[in-house]
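User: Just a sanity check before I run the rest of the batch. Below are the structure tokens for the first item. I only need the designed sequence back.
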């Protein structure tokens, strides 16, 4: 199991028990390592500084005991933000209808990078559907190397409604 998978397996259950979903674990840097943890509240409420502090304290203790990373690193805990990365299958369903950027490991119709309106997953749940300028494309979920929402006025309005508890998925 690679380090990324080990970190996800170590951190995920702890976050789950605290009432959070793990969005992304990313170890960055060469000389000065940073372990970035992105989390969402399970109740759908906006993440606050207090959430990040609580997660940081809990995970610091866990990481100190388990010691999965050799050498010094900085732990950074954050929310995914408005123009969030799409890392889980459920993200592509939850954020369907919004504009997204996506990069595929394998070329599809001669290209690897796409920007368009997210349709969601196909009926098998194995491909992401995206409407781009040339029509609809299906990108195998296993080939998605990076995906994120594009910051638009529409996304900002929807995020504000979510935080106010007004958005409905109809």
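Assistant: Here's the designed sequence for the first item:
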């Amino acid at each position: 199991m690679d380090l990324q998978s080990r970190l996800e397996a170590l951190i995920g259950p702890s976050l789950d028990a605290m009432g959070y979903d793990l969005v992304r674990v990313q170890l960055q840097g060469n000389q000065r390592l940073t372990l970035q943890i992105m989390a969402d509240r399970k109740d759908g409420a906006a993440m606050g500084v207090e959430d990040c502090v609580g997660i940081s304290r809990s995970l610091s203790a866990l990481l100190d005991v388990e010691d999965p990373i050799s050498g010094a690193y900085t732990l950074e805990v954050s929310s995914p933000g408005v123009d969030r990365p799409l890392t889980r299958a459920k993200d592509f369903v939850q954020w369907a209808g919004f504009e997204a950027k996506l990069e595929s490991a394998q070329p599809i119709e001669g290209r690897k990078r796409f920007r368009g309106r997210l349709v969601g997953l196909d009926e098998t749940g194995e491909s992401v559907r995206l409407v781009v300028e040339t029509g609809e494309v299906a990108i195998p979920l296993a080939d998605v190397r990076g995906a994120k929402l594009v910051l638009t006025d529409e996304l900002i309005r929807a995020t504000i409604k979510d935080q106010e508890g007004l958005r409905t998925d109809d």
